[in-house]
From TrEMBL:
Could methylate the ribose at the nucleotide 34 wobble position in tRNA. Keywords: Cytoplasm, Methyltransferase, S-adenosyl-L-methionine, Transferase, tRNA processing. Residues 6-144 form the tRNA/rRNA methyltransferase SpoU type domain. GO terms for biological process: wobble position ribose methylation. It catalyses: cytidine(34) in tRNA + S-adenosyl-L-methionine = 2'-O-methylcytidine(34) in tRNA + S-adenosyl-L-homocysteine + H(+); 5-carboxymethylaminomethyluridine(34) in tRNA(Leu) + S-adenosyl-L-methionine = 5-carboxymethylaminomethyl-2'-O-methyluridine(34) in tRNA(Leu) + S-adenosyl-L-homocysteine + H(+). This is Putative tRNA (cytidine(34)-2'-O)-methyltransferase. It is found in: Cytoplasm. Its main location: cytoplasm.
């Protein structure tokens, strides 16, 4: 199996279809998918596989029971961590992505926990939302957008 270009981390995802779609993006871009528990669904759930189609078997998945286990096991360098939240000062286009970086996303209803947002303030990234009529974007859409910007910077 080829070495991953980067990793997409889902912190306590709740909607199986989003995780399946993000897994499909991971296969397309040779990225690893990291899932941090608790999950709002069973990873073998039909909805995850349906969204991932027949590509799900090719997703490189690592699971951790909590965020600290992720940090202890992966030992990421601070500059490789990019935490996505709508309240970041820096946006996607002001961020430098390098090979082996981590794109970290919170759950669909709550986002990332406050303790993570507080601890990693300089590593927070947002996608521009130009309309005041939109409160948030879909997790799979944001992850895919961020992943394609990361691969553009890494490979192109």
């Amino acid at each position: 199996m080829n070495k991953s270009n980067f990793k997409i981390v889902l912190y306590s995802p709740e909607i199986p279809g989003n995780t399946g779609s993000i897994g499909r993006t991971c296969v397309a871009l040779n990225a690893e998918l990291i899932l941090i528990h608790p999950l709002g669904f069973d990873i073998d759930e039909k909805a995850v596989r349906r969204a991932g189609l027949d590509y799900w078997k090719h997703v490189k998945i690592t699971e951790y029971q909590n965020f600290q286990e992720f940090l202890d096991s992966e030992k990421p360098q601070l500059e490789t961590l990019h935490f996505f939240t709508k309240n970041a000062k820096k946006n996607l286009f002001e961020t430098s992505f390098k090979e082996d970086c981590y794109l970290v996303f919170g759950c669909e209803t709550k986002g990332l926990p406050q303790e993570v947002l507080s601890k990693y303030q300089d590593e927070l990234v947002s996608l521009p939302i130009l309309s005041e009529n939109i409160r948030s974007l879909n997790l799979a859409s944001v992850a895919t957008t961020a992943a394609y910007e990361a691969i553009r910077q890494i490979k192109y």
